Amino acid sequence: MKEKTYLKSIGEVNRRFNTGISDLEDVEDNFAFFANQYYLSLIDWDDPNDPIRKIIIPDKAEMVEWGSLDPSMEARNTKSPGLQHKYGSTALMLISDQCGGLCRFCFRKRLFINPEDEKIRDFSGDIEYIRSHPEISNVLLTGGDALMIPTSRLEKIISALFSIKHIKSVRIGTKMPAYNPFRIIEDESLHDMVRKLSRPGKMIYFMTQFNHPRELTKEAKQSLDILRLSGASLANQTPVLNGVNSDPETISLLCSTLAESGNIPYYLFQCRPAVGNRHFTVPVETTYEIYEKAKKGLSGLAKRARYVMSHSTGKIEVIGMDSEKVYMKYHQAANPGDIGRIISFKRNPSALWFDDYL
């Protein structure tokens, strides 16, 4: 179908949409561009500040020297290529090095710059590692985007994981409901896989990434309904991004629309200090205030997301502020002794990351 045609350069976008965008070759040379016609059609090309445009279209601001290719230091917890084990109960498998579109704020740009470094060729070793670690109860399949691999291969991976007694749930990390909902709508084998494998004690979750309410189109909502009615559970996570969703009204509408679609608002992330991301960042304390204002108009079901920083030491939740201090809590931690620990710091309105408080 025409709307699923993939474009791999801004030149192709110009020819298809007559956008007049130019002088982005140096950005594309450093950080690849990839999107389909469906997602690009959501952009108001007359608005240079269109939030969907900011999500997917390269910007010269990406060339500002700032950040790291591994901002959460995932290499520390990598047990074999593509397998991470940072938190006791959770393992993470990078099962794909491709996405349905390349987010300009991606914190794993390294996968697209040096794909061979972490590319998984054989999952058998990872499955055996998980089998030999009974403390692992859930596995996150991500990448890249887990739905970029064929359903037949995805089913083999999930079946192998569910054959392990101590694995109770598998999470599928994907932005495909936003980028290409037809991947879900038209693949009956995916619906069948969820119906067949999801059962009591063996839960399948789809961890979606909707960053802006306008991504929740009729087709996107249809794809969510299919997954949910097939037996999967849904949860959404998004970073707070300057110029995309960095105001209370947008966050409030995003969370309420997600809840109405049966998709739990799960995490609001501080934008990670990855290479190319400086212009997307919003100060930590400003983001906290944005979310607190957004929650005032939300039902309890819509304001369940935790605002966290996915730091090398753990998931650090920002839980409060007063006139002098900001208060945080280790929601999850690489060191189990830190889980639940509350810490406080002197207010720093310019802080963009946890390390700025140290």
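[next item in queue]
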Amino acid sequence: MEKAIFGAGCFWHVQETFDQVKGIISTSVGYSGGNIDNPTYQQVCSGTTGHVEVVEIVFNPNIITYDKLLELFWNNHDPTTKDRQGPDIGHQYRSIIYYFNSQQKDAAELSKQNFQKSGKINNSIITEIKPVINYYKAEEYHQNYFSKKVSGI
């Protein structure tokens, strides 16, 4: 199994998107890239910690490739808006790919170039591509938020 971490706006929406994909073993929502350990949702939303709302994805590369995950990432948010996705505004909602190794870094950079050239967007991509520094799992009430809402949990 391998891991990927993406930030593409509100982590609830990103998790819901990736949870529906064959080959993804599990997902969890959390916070990455900030300057304090174990931040709370309230701290991250304050905009003072530097964290991004992200989804950590555990996937089987024999079923779904990292390149396919990148394709889903690009096609399911607007990578041209700074610190905003739809109604969600703030540094914690920025578009970012965190990579675990040089292969993921190279794949992310190439996919960014290809998506920019694809003609699917008119503006310049501002998505950051950075190494994973940390990942803190978000509070339990954020995990699988939409599934809980639908099932009434």
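[queue empty]
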